[in-house]
């Protein structure tokens, strides 16, 4: 299993699934729940500057998820999304219990761990980062 092609395929699948999860959440904040309702929710959680934070969060999730799927600026994007999820863990999930059904810390912890795996191991060769990294200058 320790073959480059297997690692690259696993990283591609891992990145794509994680990216789609973030795209779905960003899409939900923008178009299903809406920024106004997301702002109200953020205000209820005590998040500073709830409207600005809702816009930044939705944009980061939507665009960052897309960048993860493409494998573009992958380690930077994964690190930024991990910080975003740490903020969500603190403001939204901490003190709510463990399980996701209770709005607990389970889900953001899994996302943070997954994002840290991408920060550590990179995007793999099956990514735009991999393609640009192999380009002859």
Report on this model:
It is found in: Cell membrane. Belongs to the DoxX family. Its main location: membrane. With about 140 residues, this protein is mainly α. The protein has one domain. About 75% of the residues lie in helices and about 0% in strands. The protein is built from six helices and no strands.
Task: Fill in the keyword field for this structure.
137 residues, single chain, mainly alpha
The overall pLDDT, averaged over residues, is 93
Number of helices: 6
Please provide the ordered H/E string of secondary-structure elements. Answer: HHHHHH
- Nearest-angstrom radius of gyration? 16 Å
- Derived structural class: mainly alpha
Helix content: over 70%
Number of separate structural domains: 1
Question: How far apart, in Å, are the first and last alpha carbons?
Answer: 32 Å
Q: Can you tell me the residue ranges where pLDDT is under 50 for at least 5 consecutive residues?
A: none
How many beta-strand segments? 0
* Strand composition percent: under 5%
Main sheet makeup: none
Characterize the overall form.
globular
């Amino acid at each position: 299993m320790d073959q480059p092609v297997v690692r690259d395929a696993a990283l591609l699948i891992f990145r794509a699934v994680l990216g789609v999860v973030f795209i779905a959440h960003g899409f939900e904040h923008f178009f299903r729940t809406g920024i106004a309702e997301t702002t109200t929710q953020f205000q209820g959680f005590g998040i500073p500057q709830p409207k600005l934070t809702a816009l930044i969060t939705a944009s980061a999730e939507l665009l960052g998820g897309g960048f993860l799927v493409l494998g573009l600026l992958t380690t930077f994007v994964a690190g930024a999304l991990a910080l975003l999820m740490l903020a969500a863990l603190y403001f939204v999930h901490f003190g709510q219990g463990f399980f996701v059904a209770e709005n607990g810390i389970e889900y953001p912890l899994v996302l943070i761990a997954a994002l840290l795996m991408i920060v550590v191991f990179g995007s793999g060769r099956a990514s735009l980062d991999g393609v640009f990294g192999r380009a002859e200058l």
